[in-house]
Design a protein that fits this description.
This protein folds into 2 domains: 56 residues; 74 residues. Helices cover 65% and strands 0% of the residues. The chain is mostly helical. The N and C termini lie far apart (71 Å). The longest helix has 23 residues.
Length: 141
């Protein structure tokens, strides 16, 4: 019996659909990667191998992204959007998450927005708002 949960099987089904695999193609991948004819025969290790193969084929899971918004005490999705919007405004659209992370580390705000607590996000929003305001003032005068 497999040691996978229903969630694992759901992700496998989403990957199959997203990649546009027929049932035969899906089973061929399972067999080639894990030696199993169906997902019910997978264990945690073989499931990871299959998922790695699907990701190499172009599958993009949104499961981890959704988990970030469910973490108690962490920055909300709205706060994260606001931070990205302010960063884009400050960098004239050239900044990305990597440059934002570098700025956060340099100014001791953490190691990336995905790790921010709600109060830390509030501080980052305040700092970025001030930076954008100063930039606009400097450009005008």
């Amino acid at each position: 019996m497999a040691d996978l949960t229903g969630r694992h099987f759901s992700i496998l089904r989403v990957a199959k659909a997203q990649l546009g695999l027929s049932d035969d193609d899906y089973r061929a991948v399972l067999h080639r990667i894990s030696g199993q004819e169906s997902a019910t025969g997978l264990n945690a290790k073989s499931s990871k191998k299959v998922m790695a193969h699907f990701e190499a084929m172009g599958f993009l899971s949104t499961a981890k992204k959704k988990e970030f918004s469910r973490r108690p005490g962490k920055a909300s999705d709205a706060q994260l959007r606001k931070i990205r919007q302010l960063w884009a405004e400050f960098t004239d659209g050239t900044g990305d998450d990597t440059s934002l992370r570098h700025w956060m580390e340099k100014h001791r705000h953490g190691h990336g927005i995905q790790w921010l607590q709600a109060d830390g996000a509030h501080k980052v929003i305040g700092a970025l708002t001030n930076m954008v305001r100063r930039k606009k003032t400097t450009a005008q005068g």
